[in-house]
Amino acid sequence: xxxxxxxxxxxxxxxxxxxxxxxxxxxxxxxxxxxxxxxxxxxxxxxxxxxxxxxxxxxxxxxxxxxxxxxxxxxxxxxxxxxxxxxxxxxxxxxxxxxxxxxxxxxxxxxxxxxxxxxxxxxxxxxxxxxxxxxxxxxxxxxxxxxxxxxxxxxxxxxxxxxxxxxxxxxxxxxxxxxxxxxxxxxxxxxxxxxxxxxxxxxxxxxxxxxxxxxxxxxxxxxxxxxxxxxxxxxxxxxxxxxxxxxxxxxxxxxxxxxxxxxxxxxxxxxxxxxxxxxxxxxxxxxxxxxxxxxxxxxxxxxxxxxxxxxxxxxxxxxxxxxxxxxxxxxxxxxxxxxxxxxxxxxxxxxxxxxxxxxxxxxxxxxxxxxxxxxxxxxxx
Length: 381
Known about the structure:
By secondary structure, the protein is of the alpha/beta class. The chain is built from 17 helices and 9 strands.
């Protein structure tokens, strides 16, 4: 009996030794190999070590006139995740000014520099990038191939000027008047037809992306033919049942095409949400994130809009609500003398909400990860 056990033990020992030799030869983990046993570095793992305030800063986009970008130097130095440029004519030295500004960002993580360069009535720097026709004109007179080529040319000039994100194209379906005080879209739309709006909008986005500028498709889940201009007042979209058949389809195609960023509208969507979509967990988390499977960057429309204040929210509270709903970056406007105070209020509200348990740290970490991915930041290299 003892001899049998000895033979079994001997065979087992040989087997263990053989397996150990084979695994060791293949670079397997062996006792004492602590370096190989260490967990792999991940972006999420690195972000999990950040203080809450640093996470909060990455979700904030500060507004500034493109003629005086240095006015938000303190906000960028504090770690603001983005800067949005306003104006109608950019200075010739914008690239240098932006390089100086973004060079102040802590930890070498520059903010996204964004603006609205849609064409037609909405252009911020036509003197630097060239004049573009409106989306409606492009949709009526240009092929998707020509639209992509034009967007690539404009995008390359934007990138040369230091702009890294374009809050365009508009994928909303519309053929009515505007944009004006009562109509938010109008000629900003490529077409009322789903096929045209989708093909042309995606062509525009791909041209921008090929030029090194991050395109942002807007305004999810479809703002075309809204009852009013959400910049001015509360407004509603077409019913959710209608949007799912029509207005949502260009966004579904954009997500399927792998486009990296989506802006959510401030309009109510009858049948989906009674509050602005930008503050709605149903609209962002349930529909955009879960049902449509979008894992990229989600930005709000301006939380200084009349639709937000009309719903009973000030900018700081709306920012917390939007992040909790699934947004990653919050946008707002302010008089230049109030930008610093407004930014501090928003960051303070976010940090306080995490401390009070109204906003989970995990949700804030996820938002920061999405922002950093949009910037192509690698914290593990």
